[in-house]
Protein backbone atom coordinates (compact mmCIF):
# COMPACT_ATOMS: atom_id res chain seq x y z
CA UNK A 1 0.00 0.00 0.00
CA UNK A 2 1.35 3.44 -0.92
CA UNK A 3 2.05 5.60 2.08
CA UNK A 4 0.20 8.90 2.02
CA UNK A 5 2.53 11.87 1.91
CA UNK A 6 1.84 15.24 3.55
CA UNK A 7 1.21 18.43 1.66
CA UNK A 8 1.54 22.06 2.64
CA UNK A 9 -0.93 24.77 1.62
CA UNK A 10 0.68 28.11 0.94
CA UNK A 11 -0.29 31.43 -0.52
CA UNK A 12 1.57 34.19 -2.31
CA UNK A 13 3.29 33.82 -5.63
CA UNK A 14 3.46 30.05 -5.30
CA UNK A 15 -0.29 29.62 -5.23
CA UNK A 16 -2.57 27.71 -2.93
CA UNK A 17 -1.26 24.22 -3.44
CA UNK A 18 2.29 23.11 -2.84
CA UNK A 19 3.03 19.43 -2.39
CA UNK A 20 5.95 18.84 -0.10
CA UNK A 21 7.01 15.67 -1.88
CA UNK A 22 6.64 14.34 -5.41
CA UNK A 23 4.13 11.52 -5.86
CA UNK A 24 3.84 8.70 -8.38
CA UNK A 25 1.98 10.62 -11.09
CA UNK A 26 3.15 9.88 -14.63
CA UNK A 27 2.22 10.47 -18.26
CA UNK A 28 0.37 7.44 -19.60
CA UNK A 29 0.08 8.64 -23.21
CA UNK A 30 -0.08 11.84 -25.27
CA UNK A 31 -1.57 13.05 -28.55
CA UNK A 32 -0.30 15.83 -30.82
CA UNK A 33 -2.12 17.39 -33.78
CA UNK A 34 -1.24 20.30 -36.06
CA UNK A 35 2.15 21.04 -34.55
CA UNK A 36 4.88 21.76 -37.09
CA UNK A 37 5.30 18.56 -39.18
CA UNK A 38 2.94 16.54 -36.96
CA UNK A 39 -0.60 16.57 -38.38
CA UNK A 40 -1.99 13.82 -36.19
CA UNK A 41 -0.07 11.58 -33.80
CA UNK A 42 -2.57 9.84 -31.55
CA UNK A 43 -2.17 8.06 -28.24
CA UNK A 44 1.60 7.71 -28.06
CA UNK A 45 2.03 5.42 -25.08
CA UNK A 46 4.76 6.27 -22.59
CA UNK A 47 6.24 3.44 -20.58
CA UNK A 48 9.38 3.53 -18.49
CA UNK A 49 11.60 3.87 -21.58
CA UNK A 50 10.03 5.08 -24.83
CA UNK A 51 12.02 5.62 -28.03
CA UNK A 52 10.85 7.77 -30.94
CA UNK A 53 12.89 6.36 -33.79
CA UNK A 54 13.17 7.32 -37.44
CA UNK A 55 15.27 9.03 -40.07
CA UNK A 56 16.20 12.70 -39.85
CA UNK A 57 13.54 15.35 -40.48
CA UNK A 58 10.58 12.99 -40.02
CA UNK A 59 9.04 14.61 -36.93
CA UNK A 60 10.69 12.87 -33.95
CA UNK A 61 12.00 16.11 -32.48
CA UNK A 62 8.67 17.87 -32.97
CA UNK A 63 6.90 15.29 -30.80
CA UNK A 64 9.43 15.88 -28.03
CA UNK A 65 9.09 19.66 -28.47
CA UNK A 66 5.30 19.45 -28.30
CA UNK A 67 5.54 17.54 -25.04
CA UNK A 68 7.95 20.14 -23.71
CA UNK A 69 5.70 23.01 -24.88
CA UNK A 70 2.70 21.76 -22.91
CA UNK A 71 4.63 20.69 -19.82
CA UNK A 72 6.71 23.87 -19.83
CA UNK A 73 3.73 26.20 -20.21
CA UNK A 74 1.90 24.38 -17.45
CA UNK A 75 4.88 24.63 -15.09
CA UNK A 76 5.31 28.35 -15.81
CA UNK A 77 1.61 29.11 -15.28
CA UNK A 78 1.72 27.32 -11.93
CA UNK A 79 4.92 29.03 -10.82
CA UNK A 80 3.56 32.50 -11.63
CA UNK A 81 0.06 31.76 -10.32
CA UNK A 82 -1.41 33.06 -13.59
CA UNK A 83 -5.19 32.95 -13.80
CA UNK A 84 -6.58 32.69 -17.33
CA UNK A 85 -8.53 35.43 -19.04
CA UNK A 86 -11.87 34.53 -20.62
CA UNK A 87 -9.93 33.39 -23.72
CA UNK A 88 -7.05 31.67 -21.94
CA UNK A 89 -3.36 32.52 -21.56
CA UNK A 90 -1.21 34.53 -23.95
CA UNK A 91 1.85 32.28 -24.25
CA UNK A 92 4.11 35.19 -25.19
CA UNK A 93 3.49 36.72 -21.76
CA UNK A 94 4.31 33.66 -19.71
CA UNK A 95 7.32 35.05 -17.93
CA UNK A 96 9.77 32.15 -17.89
CA UNK A 97 8.73 30.29 -21.02
CA UNK A 98 11.64 29.82 -23.41
CA UNK A 99 9.43 28.02 -25.92
CA UNK A 100 6.38 30.25 -26.37
CA UNK A 101 3.97 29.06 -29.03
CA UNK A 102 4.01 30.93 -32.35
CA UNK A 103 1.18 30.22 -34.76
CA UNK A 104 3.21 31.48 -37.72
CA UNK A 105 6.08 29.12 -36.91
CA UNK A 106 4.38 26.17 -35.25
CA UNK A 107 1.14 25.60 -37.16
CA UNK A 108 1.66 23.32 -40.22
CA UNK A 109 2.11 25.35 -43.40
CA UNK A 110 0.68 22.68 -45.69
CA UNK A 111 -2.81 23.31 -44.27
CA UNK A 112 -5.30 25.52 -46.08
CA UNK A 113 -3.94 29.01 -45.43
CA UNK A 114 -7.46 30.49 -45.53
CA UNK A 115 -8.58 28.42 -42.56
CA UNK A 116 -7.40 29.18 -39.06
CA UNK A 117 -6.67 25.97 -37.23
CA UNK A 118 -5.71 24.98 -33.71
CA UNK A 119 -2.70 23.11 -32.40
CA UNK A 120 -3.75 20.55 -29.81
CA UNK A 121 -1.71 18.56 -27.32
CA UNK A 122 -3.45 16.09 -25.03
CA UNK A 123 -1.66 14.76 -21.96
CA UNK A 124 -3.14 11.71 -20.26
CA UNK A 125 -1.90 11.44 -16.68
CA UNK A 126 -2.05 8.34 -14.51
CA UNK A 127 -2.62 8.95 -10.79
CA UNK A 128 -1.69 6.73 -7.87
CA UNK A 129 -4.03 6.13 -4.95
CA UNK A 130 -2.10 8.77 -3.01
CA UNK A 131 -2.52 11.25 -5.87
CA UNK A 132 -6.28 10.62 -5.97
CA UNK A 133 -6.61 11.21 -2.24
CA UNK A 134 -4.49 14.37 -2.31
CA UNK A 135 -6.36 15.64 -5.37
CA UNK A 136 -9.67 15.41 -3.52
CA UNK A 137 -8.26 16.92 -0.34
CA UNK A 138 -6.62 19.85 -2.13
CA UNK A 139 -9.29 20.61 -4.74
CA UNK A 140 -12.47 19.07 -3.35
CA UNK A 141 -12.84 17.22 -6.65
CA UNK A 142 -13.15 13.49 -7.11
CA UNK A 143 -11.32 11.66 -9.87
CA UNK A 144 -10.28 8.13 -10.73
CA UNK A 145 -6.74 7.13 -11.66
CA UNK A 146 -6.73 9.13 -14.90
CA UNK A 147 -6.71 12.84 -15.69
CA UNK A 148 -6.52 14.31 -19.20
CA UNK A 149 -5.59 17.91 -19.97
CA UNK A 150 -6.12 19.35 -23.46
CA UNK A 151 -3.82 22.22 -24.52
CA UNK A 152 -5.23 24.23 -27.46
CA UNK A 153 -3.16 26.97 -29.17
CA UNK A 154 -4.98 29.27 -31.61
CA UNK A 155 -3.86 31.69 -34.32
CA UNK A 156 -3.55 34.51 -31.76
CA UNK A 157 -1.08 32.44 -29.71
CA UNK A 158 -3.68 32.04 -26.98
CA UNK A 159 -3.46 28.88 -24.90
CA UNK A 160 -6.60 27.27 -23.54
CA UNK A 161 -6.34 24.33 -21.15
CA UNK A 162 -9.34 22.12 -20.49
CA UNK A 163 -9.98 19.02 -18.45
CA UNK A 164 -11.31 16.29 -20.74
CA UNK A 165 -14.56 14.49 -19.94
CA UNK A 166 -15.08 16.11 -16.56
CA UNK A 167 -18.41 17.64 -15.77
CA UNK A 168 -19.48 21.16 -15.14
CA UNK A 169 -18.11 24.58 -14.53
CA UNK A 170 -16.75 23.48 -11.17
CA UNK A 171 -13.85 21.65 -12.78
CA UNK A 172 -13.01 24.36 -15.30
CA UNK A 173 -13.26 27.07 -12.65
CA UNK A 174 -10.48 25.28 -10.78
CA UNK A 175 -8.25 24.79 -13.82
CA UNK A 176 -5.42 26.87 -12.34
CA UNK A 177 -5.32 24.77 -9.19
CA UNK A 178 -5.50 21.59 -11.26
CA UNK A 179 -2.53 22.83 -13.29
CA UNK A 180 -0.65 23.59 -10.07
CA UNK A 181 -1.39 20.15 -8.71
CA UNK A 182 -0.09 18.38 -11.81
CA UNK A 183 2.96 20.59 -12.31
CA UNK A 184 4.00 20.26 -8.67
CA UNK A 185 3.79 16.48 -8.85
CA UNK A 186 5.81 15.89 -12.01
CA UNK A 187 9.39 17.02 -12.49
CA UNK A 188 9.78 17.35 -16.28
CA UNK A 189 13.22 17.89 -17.83
CA UNK A 190 13.78 18.55 -21.54
CA UNK A 191 17.17 18.28 -23.25
CA UNK A 192 17.20 19.68 -26.80
CA UNK A 193 19.39 18.32 -29.58
CA UNK A 194 21.38 21.57 -29.72
CA UNK A 195 22.93 21.81 -26.26
CA UNK A 196 24.61 25.14 -25.62
CA UNK A 197 25.65 26.91 -22.44
CA UNK A 198 22.18 28.50 -22.37
CA UNK A 199 20.64 25.04 -22.12
CA UNK A 200 22.68 24.16 -19.07
CA UNK A 201 22.02 27.54 -17.52
CA UNK A 202 18.28 26.86 -17.77
CA UNK A 203 18.69 23.36 -16.32
CA UNK A 204 20.75 24.52 -13.37
CA UNK A 205 18.43 27.49 -12.78
CA UNK A 206 15.48 25.11 -12.63
CA UNK A 207 17.39 22.99 -10.13
CA UNK A 208 18.18 26.07 -8.09
CA UNK A 209 14.52 27.14 -8.07
CA UNK A 210 13.45 23.79 -6.70
CA UNK A 211 16.18 23.75 -4.06
CA UNK A 212 15.71 27.30 -2.85
CA UNK A 213 11.91 27.24 -2.99
CA UNK A 214 12.15 24.74 -0.14
CA UNK A 215 14.03 27.24 2.01
CA UNK A 216 11.50 30.06 1.62
CA UNK A 217 8.89 28.05 3.53
CA UNK A 218 11.18 27.87 6.55
CA UNK A 219 10.04 30.07 9.46
CA UNK A 220 13.55 31.52 9.71
CA UNK A 221 13.10 33.06 6.28
CA UNK A 222 10.36 35.32 7.58
CA UNK A 223 12.44 36.51 10.54
CA UNK A 224 16.02 36.66 9.37
CA UNK A 225 16.87 37.72 5.82
CA UNK A 226 20.54 37.23 6.51
CA UNK A 227 19.95 33.67 7.51
CA UNK A 228 17.94 33.17 4.33
CA UNK A 229 20.94 34.09 2.20
CA UNK A 230 23.08 31.66 4.17
CA UNK A 231 20.56 28.87 3.71
CA UNK A 232 20.35 29.64 0.01
CA UNK A 233 24.10 29.53 -0.39
CA UNK A 234 24.23 26.22 1.44
CA UNK A 235 21.62 24.87 -0.97
CA UNK A 236 23.63 26.14 -3.93
CA UNK A 237 26.84 24.63 -2.54
CA UNK A 238 25.08 21.32 -1.99
CA UNK A 239 24.05 21.28 -5.65
CA UNK A 240 27.59 22.08 -6.80
CA UNK A 241 29.08 19.46 -4.48
CA UNK A 242 26.66 16.80 -5.71
CA UNK A 243 27.33 17.65 -9.37
CA UNK A 244 31.12 17.38 -9.10
CA UNK A 245 31.51 13.60 -8.59
CA UNK A 246 28.86 12.81 -11.19
CA UNK A 247 30.54 15.08 -13.74
CA UNK A 248 33.92 13.49 -12.96
CA UNK A 249 32.53 10.16 -14.14
CA UNK A 250 32.01 11.69 -17.59
CA UNK A 251 34.97 14.11 -17.56
CA UNK A 252 37.70 12.60 -15.32
CA UNK A 253 39.83 15.76 -15.32
CA UNK A 254 37.08 17.84 -13.67
CA UNK A 255 37.85 18.40 -9.99
CA UNK A 256 35.32 21.05 -8.97
CA UNK A 257 32.07 22.79 -9.95
CA UNK A 258 31.20 26.25 -8.67
CA UNK A 259 27.90 28.12 -8.97
CA UNK A 260 28.08 31.89 -8.60
CA UNK A 261 24.75 33.64 -7.93
CA UNK A 262 24.32 37.26 -8.90
CA UNK A 263 23.09 39.66 -6.21
CA UNK A 264 19.35 40.24 -6.61
CA UNK A 265 16.50 41.11 -4.30
CA UNK A 266 15.06 38.45 -1.97
CA UNK A 267 11.71 38.71 -3.75
CA UNK A 268 13.17 37.79 -7.13
CA UNK A 269 15.77 35.25 -6.01
CA UNK A 270 13.45 32.22 -6.10
CA UNK A 271 12.86 32.63 -9.84
CA UNK A 272 16.50 32.21 -10.94
CA UNK A 273 15.74 33.38 -14.43
CA UNK A 274 18.48 33.32 -17.04
CA UNK A 275 21.83 34.90 -16.06
CA UNK A 276 21.08 34.95 -12.34
CA UNK A 277 23.78 32.33 -11.91
CA UNK A 278 27.05 31.44 -13.62
CA UNK A 279 28.57 27.98 -13.83
CA UNK A 280 32.30 27.33 -13.53
CA UNK A 281 34.14 24.05 -13.80
CA UNK A 282 37.72 23.36 -12.74
CA UNK A 283 39.56 21.00 -15.08
CA UNK A 284 43.27 20.20 -14.79
CA UNK A 285 43.56 22.94 -12.16
CA UNK A 286 42.03 25.72 -14.28
CA UNK A 287 38.58 27.23 -13.59
CA UNK A 288 36.60 28.14 -16.73
CA UNK A 289 33.12 29.53 -17.34
CA UNK A 290 31.07 26.66 -18.79
CA UNK A 291 29.84 28.66 -21.79
CA UNK A 292 33.47 29.07 -22.88
CA UNK A 293 33.96 25.30 -23.12
CA UNK A 294 33.41 23.31 -26.32
CA UNK A 295 30.13 21.69 -27.41
CA UNK A 296 31.26 18.24 -26.32
CA UNK A 297 32.10 19.31 -22.78
CA UNK A 298 28.88 21.30 -22.51
CA UNK A 299 26.82 18.30 -23.65
CA UNK A 300 28.53 16.00 -21.17
CA UNK A 301 27.93 18.51 -18.39
CA UNK A 302 24.20 18.64 -19.11
CA UNK A 303 23.89 14.88 -19.30
CA UNK A 304 25.87 14.37 -16.10
CA UNK A 305 23.63 16.92 -14.40
CA UNK A 306 20.53 15.14 -15.62
CA UNK A 307 21.87 11.82 -14.40
CA UNK A 308 22.42 13.34 -10.96
CA UNK A 309 18.99 14.98 -10.88
CA UNK A 310 17.11 11.89 -11.91
CA UNK A 311 19.00 9.63 -9.52
CA UNK A 312 17.49 11.70 -6.72
CA UNK A 313 13.91 11.81 -8.02
CA UNK A 314 11.67 8.81 -8.55
CA UNK A 315 8.80 10.84 -9.98
CA UNK A 316 10.30 12.63 -12.96
CA UNK A 317 10.01 12.62 -16.73
CA UNK A 318 13.14 13.04 -18.81
CA UNK A 319 12.74 13.96 -22.51
CA UNK A 320 15.91 14.01 -24.64
CA UNK A 321 16.07 15.06 -28.27
CA UNK A 322 18.95 13.38 -30.12
CA UNK A 323 20.90 12.21 -27.06
CA UNK A 324 23.81 11.29 -29.32
CA UNK A 325 24.37 14.92 -30.42
CA UNK A 326 27.92 16.26 -29.89
CA UNK A 327 29.08 13.07 -28.14
CA UNK A 328 31.92 10.74 -29.06
CA UNK A 329 31.17 6.97 -29.24
CA UNK A 330 32.36 6.13 -25.72
CA UNK A 331 30.19 8.88 -24.23
CA UNK A 332 27.21 7.68 -26.28
CA UNK A 333 27.52 4.20 -24.79
CA UNK A 334 27.87 5.61 -21.29
CA UNK A 335 24.78 7.77 -21.86
CA UNK A 336 22.78 4.80 -23.16
CA UNK A 337 23.53 2.91 -19.96
CA UNK A 338 22.65 5.97 -17.86
CA UNK A 339 19.33 6.38 -19.66
CA UNK A 340 18.52 2.69 -19.19
CA UNK A 341 19.32 2.95 -15.48
CA UNK A 342 17.18 6.08 -15.12
CA UNK A 343 14.22 4.41 -16.82
CA UNK A 344 13.99 1.94 -13.95
CA UNK A 345 12.64 4.71 -11.68
CA UNK A 346 11.71 7.60 -13.98
CA UNK A 347 9.89 7.91 -17.29
CA UNK A 348 12.29 8.51 -20.16
CA UNK A 349 11.42 9.44 -23.74
CA UNK A 350 14.07 10.02 -26.40
CA UNK A 351 13.99 11.00 -30.08
CA UNK A 352 16.85 9.44 -32.01
CA UNK A 353 18.07 7.95 -35.27
CA UNK A 354 20.90 6.10 -33.51
CA UNK A 355 20.25 2.33 -33.17
CA UNK A 356 22.07 2.20 -29.83
CA UNK A 357 19.15 3.88 -28.03
CA UNK A 358 16.47 1.57 -29.43
CA UNK A 359 14.70 -0.39 -26.69
CA UNK A 360 15.63 -3.94 -27.68
CA UNK A 361 13.94 -5.56 -24.69
CA UNK A 362 10.46 -4.29 -25.59
CA UNK A 363 9.92 -3.66 -29.31
CA UNK A 364 6.50 -2.07 -28.75
CA UNK A 365 8.01 0.74 -26.66
CA UNK A 366 9.69 2.01 -29.83
CA UNK A 367 7.55 4.44 -31.83
CA UNK A 368 8.35 4.77 -35.54
CA UNK A 369 8.03 8.33 -36.83
CA UNK A 370 7.85 8.57 -40.61
CA UNK A 371 6.53 11.42 -42.78
CA UNK A 372 4.92 13.04 -39.75
CA UNK A 373 2.93 9.93 -38.81
CA UNK A 374 3.59 7.58 -35.92
CA UNK A 375 3.03 3.91 -35.18
CA UNK A 376 4.24 1.42 -32.63
CA UNK A 377 7.02 -0.85 -33.81
CA UNK A 378 6.10 -4.53 -33.87
CA UNK A 379 9.53 -5.96 -34.67
CA UNK A 380 13.16 -4.90 -34.60
CA UNK A 381 13.20 -5.55 -38.36
CA UNK A 382 10.76 -2.64 -38.87
CA UNK A 383 13.12 -0.32 -37.03
CA UNK A 384 16.11 -1.57 -39.03
CA UNK A 385 14.23 -0.92 -42.26
CA UNK A 386 13.22 2.64 -41.32
CA UNK A 387 16.81 3.45 -40.29
CA UNK A 388 18.28 1.78 -43.37
CA UNK A 389 20.27 -0.76 -41.35
CA UNK A 390 21.52 -3.68 -43.46
CA UNK A 391 21.82 -7.09 -41.81
CA UNK A 392 23.70 -10.24 -42.81
CA UNK A 393 21.52 -13.19 -43.82
CA UNK A 394 22.27 -15.20 -40.66
CA UNK A 395 21.12 -12.28 -38.49
CA UNK A 396 17.88 -11.33 -40.27
CA UNK A 397 15.67 -13.05 -37.70
CA UNK A 398 17.97 -12.42 -34.75
CA UNK A 399 16.83 -10.46 -31.71
CA UNK A 400 19.88 -11.51 -29.71
CA UNK A 401 23.18 -13.27 -30.35
CA UNK A 402 25.54 -15.46 -28.37
CA UNK A 403 29.11 -14.60 -29.37
CA UNK A 404 32.08 -16.93 -28.92
CA UNK A 405 35.72 -16.80 -30.00
CA UNK A 406 35.74 -19.54 -32.64
CA UNK A 407 33.79 -22.19 -34.54
CA UNK A 408 34.83 -24.96 -32.14
CA UNK A 409 33.39 -22.92 -29.24
CA UNK A 410 30.19 -22.50 -31.25
CA UNK A 411 29.80 -26.26 -31.72
CA UNK A 412 30.65 -26.95 -28.07
CA UNK A 413 28.03 -24.61 -26.62
CA UNK A 414 25.29 -25.55 -29.09
CA UNK A 415 25.79 -29.23 -28.21
CA UNK A 416 24.97 -28.58 -24.56
CA UNK A 417 22.13 -26.16 -25.30
CA UNK A 418 20.46 -29.00 -27.22
CA UNK A 419 21.24 -31.39 -24.37
CA UNK A 420 20.37 -29.33 -21.28
CA UNK A 421 18.51 -26.21 -22.45
CA UNK A 422 14.80 -25.70 -21.85
CA UNK A 423 12.46 -26.17 -24.79
CA UNK A 424 11.94 -22.39 -24.99
CA UNK A 425 15.70 -21.81 -25.14
CA UNK A 426 16.24 -24.54 -27.74
CA UNK A 427 13.43 -23.13 -29.90
CA UNK A 428 15.06 -19.70 -29.97
CA UNK A 429 18.43 -21.11 -31.02
CA UNK A 430 16.94 -23.54 -33.55
CA UNK A 431 14.78 -20.82 -35.18
CA UNK A 432 17.67 -18.40 -35.61
CA UNK A 433 16.30 -15.88 -33.12
CA UNK A 434 19.50 -16.37 -31.10
CA UNK A 435 22.33 -17.48 -33.40
CA UNK A 436 25.73 -18.42 -32.00
CA UNK A 437 28.21 -16.17 -33.79
CA UNK A 438 31.97 -16.92 -33.81
CA UNK A 439 34.16 -13.82 -33.77
CA UNK A 440 37.00 -15.78 -35.45
CA UNK A 441 39.52 -14.50 -32.95
CA UNK A 442 39.28 -12.62 -29.69
CA UNK A 443 40.69 -9.47 -31.31
CA UNK A 444 37.61 -9.23 -33.54
CA UNK A 445 35.10 -9.23 -30.67
CA UNK A 446 35.08 -5.42 -30.37
CA UNK A 447 34.25 -5.02 -34.06
CA UNK A 448 31.45 -7.57 -33.77
CA UNK A 449 30.01 -5.72 -30.78
CA UNK A 450 29.83 -2.54 -32.87
CA UNK A 451 27.94 -4.44 -35.57
CA UNK A 452 25.48 -5.90 -33.07
CA UNK A 453 24.81 -2.48 -31.59
CA UNK A 454 24.20 -0.98 -35.02
CA UNK A 455 21.71 -3.69 -36.01
CA UNK A 456 19.99 -3.49 -32.61
CA UNK A 457 20.51 -6.96 -31.16
CA UNK A 458 21.36 -7.91 -27.60
CA UNK A 459 24.50 -9.96 -27.15
CA UNK A 460 26.04 -12.32 -24.61
CA UNK A 461 29.74 -13.19 -24.89
CA UNK A 462 31.58 -16.36 -23.82
CA UNK A 463 35.38 -16.15 -23.89
CA UNK A 464 38.48 -17.89 -22.59
CA UNK A 465 39.90 -16.67 -19.29
CA UNK A 466 43.31 -15.64 -20.55
CA UNK A 467 45.13 -12.35 -21.01
CA UNK A 468 43.91 -11.48 -24.55
CA UNK A 469 40.26 -12.12 -23.69
CA UNK A 470 40.51 -10.33 -20.34
CA UNK A 471 41.88 -7.22 -22.06
CA UNK A 472 38.99 -7.17 -24.54
CA UNK A 473 36.35 -7.65 -21.84
CA UNK A 474 37.89 -4.93 -19.66
CA UNK A 475 37.93 -2.51 -22.59
CA UNK A 476 34.26 -3.18 -23.39
CA UNK A 477 33.29 -2.75 -19.74
CA UNK A 478 35.25 0.50 -19.45
CA UNK A 479 33.53 1.90 -22.55
CA UNK A 480 30.07 0.90 -21.28
CA UNK A 481 29.63 -1.39 -24.28
CA UNK A 482 29.24 -4.44 -22.06
CA UNK A 483 27.44 -5.01 -18.77
CA UNK A 484 28.58 -7.46 -16.06
CA UNK A 485 25.64 -9.76 -16.85
CA UNK A 486 26.48 -9.90 -20.57
CA UNK A 487 29.51 -12.18 -20.55
CA UNK A 488 31.05 -15.29 -19.05
CA UNK A 489 34.63 -16.42 -18.84
CA UNK A 490 35.57 -20.08 -19.03
CA UNK A 491 35.98 -20.82 -15.30
CA UNK A 492 39.40 -21.41 -13.78
CA UNK A 493 40.48 -22.97 -10.52
CA UNK A 494 42.57 -21.14 -7.94
CA UNK A 495 45.75 -22.90 -9.07
CA UNK A 496 45.26 -21.97 -12.75
CA UNK A 497 46.72 -18.81 -14.27
CA UNK A 498 44.82 -19.02 -17.57
CA UNK A 499 42.21 -21.32 -19.10
CA UNK A 500 40.50 -21.79 -22.44
CA UNK A 501 37.47 -23.76 -23.54
CA UNK A 502 39.50 -26.90 -24.33
CA UNK A 503 40.46 -27.08 -20.64
CA UNK A 504 36.87 -28.21 -20.04
CA UNK A 505 37.53 -31.52 -21.82
CA UNK A 506 38.77 -34.52 -19.88
CA UNK A 507 42.37 -35.68 -20.47
CA UNK A 508 41.06 -39.04 -21.64
CA UNK A 509 38.84 -37.47 -24.31
CA UNK A 510 41.68 -35.23 -25.55
CA UNK A 511 44.05 -38.18 -25.65
CA UNK A 512 41.63 -40.39 -27.60
CA UNK A 513 40.93 -37.63 -30.12
CA UNK A 514 44.64 -36.94 -30.65
CA UNK A 515 45.29 -40.69 -31.04
CA UNK A 516 42.67 -40.95 -33.79
CA UNK A 517 43.82 -37.73 -35.49
CA UNK A 518 47.61 -37.77 -35.06
CA UNK A 519 48.29 -41.40 -34.08
CA UNK A 520 49.92 -40.39 -30.79
CA UNK A 521 49.34 -41.35 -27.15
CA UNK A 522 49.60 -38.35 -24.82
CA UNK A 523 47.41 -39.48 -21.91
CA UNK A 524 50.26 -39.89 -19.42
CA UNK A 525 51.87 -36.62 -20.43
CA UNK A 526 48.56 -34.76 -20.06
CA UNK A 527 48.05 -36.22 -16.59
CA UNK A 528 51.53 -35.15 -15.49
CA UNK A 529 51.61 -31.76 -17.23
CA UNK A 530 51.71 -28.43 -15.37
CA UNK A 531 48.10 -27.88 -14.30
CA UNK A 532 48.53 -24.10 -13.95
CA UNK A 533 48.86 -23.39 -17.66
CA UNK A 534 46.10 -23.41 -20.26
CA UNK A 535 45.41 -26.18 -22.77
CA UNK A 536 47.24 -24.69 -25.78
CA UNK A 537 50.43 -24.16 -23.76
CA UNK A 538 50.24 -27.73 -22.47
CA UNK A 539 49.91 -29.00 -26.03
CA UNK A 540 52.80 -26.82 -27.24
CA UNK A 541 55.00 -28.54 -24.62
CA UNK A 542 53.73 -32.08 -25.19
CA UNK A 543 53.52 -32.46 -28.97
CA UNK A 544 57.23 -31.80 -29.75
CA UNK A 545 58.06 -34.48 -27.17
CA UNK A 546 56.12 -37.04 -29.23
CA UNK A 547 57.49 -35.96 -32.60
CA UNK A 548 54.78 -33.54 -33.67
CA UNK A 549 54.88 -29.84 -34.42
CA UNK A 550 52.40 -27.61 -32.62
CA UNK A 551 51.72 -24.53 -34.75
CA UNK A 552 48.56 -22.46 -35.31
CA UNK A 553 47.35 -24.82 -38.02
CA UNK A 554 47.76 -27.88 -35.78
CA UNK A 555 46.11 -26.11 -32.83
CA UNK A 556 43.07 -25.14 -34.91
CA UNK A 557 42.83 -28.63 -36.38
CA UNK A 558 42.87 -30.34 -32.97
CA UNK A 559 40.25 -27.90 -31.62
CA UNK A 560 38.03 -28.69 -34.60
CA UNK A 561 38.43 -32.45 -34.12
CA UNK A 562 37.60 -32.16 -30.42
CA UNK A 563 34.41 -30.20 -31.18
CA UNK A 564 33.37 -32.60 -33.96
CA UNK A 565 33.96 -35.64 -31.75
CA UNK A 566 31.91 -34.01 -28.99
CA UNK A 567 29.01 -33.36 -31.37
CA UNK A 568 28.76 -37.02 -32.45
CA UNK A 569 29.36 -38.49 -29.01
CA UNK A 570 26.38 -40.48 -27.64
CA UNK A 571 27.09 -38.95 -24.23
CA UNK A 572 28.77 -35.53 -24.64
CA UNK A 573 28.89 -34.86 -20.90
CA UNK A 574 31.31 -37.80 -20.47
CA UNK A 575 33.78 -35.96 -22.67
CA UNK A 576 34.19 -33.27 -20.02
CA UNK A 577 36.26 -32.85 -16.90
CA UNK A 578 34.49 -32.40 -13.57
CA UNK A 579 35.00 -28.63 -13.94
CA UNK A 580 33.55 -28.79 -17.46
CA UNK A 581 30.46 -30.70 -16.35
CA UNK A 582 29.74 -28.11 -13.68
CA UNK A 583 30.32 -25.17 -16.01
CA UNK A 584 28.01 -26.22 -18.86
CA UNK A 585 25.06 -26.27 -16.46
CA UNK A 586 26.06 -22.88 -15.03
CA UNK A 587 26.43 -21.42 -18.52
CA UNK A 588 23.05 -22.73 -19.70
CA UNK A 589 21.43 -21.09 -16.67
CA UNK A 590 23.19 -17.77 -17.40
CA UNK A 591 22.16 -17.85 -21.04
CA UNK A 592 18.56 -18.72 -20.17
CA UNK A 593 18.34 -15.92 -17.61
CA UNK A 594 19.73 -13.39 -20.07
CA UNK A 595 17.77 -14.37 -23.18
CA UNK A 596 14.44 -15.79 -22.01
UniProtKB/TrEMBL annotation:
<keyword id="KW-0067">ATP-binding</keyword>
<feature type="domain" description="Endonuclease GajA/Old nuclease/RecF-like AAA">
    <location>
        <begin position="25"/>
        <end position="358"/>
    </location>
</feature>
<dbReference type="Pfam" id="PF13175">
    <property type="entry name" value="AAA_15"/>
</dbReference>
<dbReference type="InterPro" id="IPR027417">
    <property type="entry name" value="P-loop_NTPase"/>
</dbReference>
<dbReference type="Pfam" id="PF20469">
    <property type="entry name" value="OLD-like_TOPRIM"/>
</dbReference>
<dbReference type="GO" id="GO:0005524">
    <property type="term" value="F:ATP binding"/>
</dbReference>
<dbReference type="InterPro" id="IPR041685">
    <property type="entry name" value="AAA_GajA/Old/RecF-like"/>
</dbReference>
<dbReference type="InterPro" id="IPR051396">
    <property type="entry name" value="Bact_Antivir_Def_Nuclease"/>
</dbReference>
<keyword id="KW-0547">Nucleotide-binding</keyword>
<protein>
    <submittedName>
        <fullName>ATP-binding protein</fullName>
    </submittedName>
</protein>
<dbReference type="InterPro" id="IPR034139">
    <property type="entry name" value="TOPRIM_OLD"/>
</dbReference>
<feature type="domain" description="OLD protein-like TOPRIM">
    <location>
        <begin position="398"/>
        <end position="466"/>
    </location>
</feature>
Amino acid sequence: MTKKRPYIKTGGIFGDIFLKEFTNMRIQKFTVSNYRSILGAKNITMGEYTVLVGKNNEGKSNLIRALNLAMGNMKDIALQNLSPTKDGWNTARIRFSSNAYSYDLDFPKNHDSKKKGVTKIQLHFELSSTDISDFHECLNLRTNNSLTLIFSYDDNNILNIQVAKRGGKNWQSKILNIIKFVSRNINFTYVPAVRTADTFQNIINSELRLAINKTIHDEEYKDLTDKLFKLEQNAVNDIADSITPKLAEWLPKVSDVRIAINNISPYRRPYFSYRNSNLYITSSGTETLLENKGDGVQSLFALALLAKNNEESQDSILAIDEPEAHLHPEAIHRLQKTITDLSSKSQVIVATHNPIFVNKNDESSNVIVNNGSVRKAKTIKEIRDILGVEVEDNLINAKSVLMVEGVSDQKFIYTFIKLFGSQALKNKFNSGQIPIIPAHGVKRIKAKVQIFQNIMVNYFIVVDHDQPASQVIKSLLDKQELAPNQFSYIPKKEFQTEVELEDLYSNEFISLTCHDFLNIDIKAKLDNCNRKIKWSKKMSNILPEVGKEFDQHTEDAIKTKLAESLCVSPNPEKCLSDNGKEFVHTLINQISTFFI
